[in-house]
Sequence to fold (672 residues):
Amino acid sequence: MLTLLDLAGVFVFAVSGALTASRKELDLVGFAFIATVTGLGGGTLRDLLLDLGPVFWVHKPHYLLVTTIAAVLVFFTAHRVEVRYRLLMWADALGLALFCVVGARIARDAGAPFPVAVLMGMTSAVVGGLLRDIICNELPLVLRRELYWTPALLGAVVAIGLDGLGLPPAVGGLFGFAAAFALRAAALLFDLALPAYKPRPGRAWGREVPASALRATGGRPQTP
Amino acid sequence: MLTLLDLAGVFVFAVSGALTASRKELDLVGFAFIATVTGLGGGTLRDLLLDLGPVFWVHKPHYLLVTTIAAVLVFFTAHRVEVRYRLLMWADALGLALFCVVGARIARDAGAPFPVAVLMGMTSAVVGGLLRDIICNELPLVLRRELYWTPALLGAVVAIGLDGLGLPPAVGGLFGFAAAFALRAAALLFDLALPAYKPRPGRAWGREVPASALRATGGRPQTP
Amino acid sequence: MLTLLDLAGVFVFAVSGALTASRKELDLVGFAFIATVTGLGGGTLRDLLLDLGPVFWVHKPHYLLVTTIAAVLVFFTAHRVEVRYRLLMWADALGLALFCVVGARIARDAGAPFPVAVLMGMTSAVVGGLLRDIICNELPLVLRRELYWTPALLGAVVAIGLDGLGLPPAVGGLFGFAAAFALRAAALLFDLALPAYKPRPGRAWGREVPASALRATGGRPQTP
Fold:
């Protein structure tokens, strides 16, 4: 079950990676490399940090098969999709919701305490997409205003929280996934966001700045 | 003692991470994630490279507590600070000076030879801030003109050099920290820099370029 | 033999790193750090993923010596080179061809299945340069149009393919290296490229766009 979820997460993240490769107009080998890094990056870092031996895909080449299939699929069909950027967002959201659950559980099984397991869930969920954006020179999704880390945090907490109450794994998995996906979906659909840090107008940088000047620069005084 | 220094280094680096998050106007969860990556990134890479088992914070969740506290603190107080960018620089400088000593010593204890231990000190000191800048899409501090790597190098050399002479750890630690911090502080205050590489005017790119043209582009001919 | 090739690969990649540092006008310590990251980055990630214990250079400080020598050499001579950017490309190409063979073989020796070993060859060959470009804030070479991943893929496949046929290591190594280098050289000399993904004009983004408008933006409609 965990394996199946994991494969599904790898696939959708690989799709998101290949879609980013399509924005950069890479060739097929580039598609496959970016898809692989995006699909496997988060889990790989998790395994490295937990010291789980060779990372999970080293002796399971079918993971590479999955990411390569995703890359080929996107390479030959993406031009038919009318809203590739939206698709990228949704593939990323699915991967996020799947991996925060899987990652947190693997960490828990490896003996990590609760807060560390939550961070590992977030790491699994966020790092693949982060590497995708950094390698492809895109503005990292994690810097966008709508909720991104919080859904991953929520999904991880719900999943291993319910596990901790002794409920069957299917329950924790389902609720964790649903919570993370619902929150991220709401963020995408309604631009949902936590209150972001905002330098207080007039206090920022220790001098009075007229509100109008602030508005022109998006609430931020010009000087670094 | 090493643990206390380590925690202090994690805290100040986490503060620098949270300050960068404030420049990006992230939400509280984003603050916590960036603070954690900045505070723990350098030591994490060090532990991975030395193969020290699960990285140091996996079974010590209080490290996450420290980075989260730093994030919350900065989130709710940074707008009161008049010179946040300067504060970021100084928090980063403190972290640098603490981690180059701690990192080099941990590597030495793990049996690494002298030059490798020095590099591990530099890695611990530099990588957290580097990840912070890359994830937040800021120009990496390491590319700035004033001394950055050299203080880390100096601190590591002094600390494990004095240790090697058989002096008590407090001596090496104190002098290593002081040397690194003093040099970095001098760099910040007086724009201190080693001679940087400069393409020789008139020789560069194999053709004569008038000195005036070079000056206009900061000493660099226009073409790549 | 493997060690010698490895050292040669480290040296040329270190040179490419130092050349990038020269474009950024860093100081000597910065040169050494970037040269080291570029020279050792790919093999380091390979060793981490395969869980081969402390990474290869931790107990072999002569690797650091090699990268430092490369840095010093470039620092004091690069201004005499008339075509530093071209040199960077060729040093990178040499490193790529050497590391795809070495990396794939080390993975094979560690028991990785064929496709994973190929990916490890590509990782060794590509990651050092990728880190160099990301740290130095340059457009990653991997995003350029001419063949970059494919030569690494080819070299790895040829080398461990011939090894698998029972031929002596020198044969597989030579042919793998030659194949990768020839293909990358051809890419550099003739702008050789695989067909890149191109959004189909008129279908892209689900609306008719006049071909002329597409041409003006390099075949891409303006909106994200």
Observations:
- The radius of gyration of chain C is 19 Å.
- The interface with chain A takes residues 48-51, 110-116, 119, 122, 126, 130, 134, 139-140, 142-143, 145, 147-150, 153, 193-200, 203-206, 219-220, 224 of chain C (CB under 8 Å).
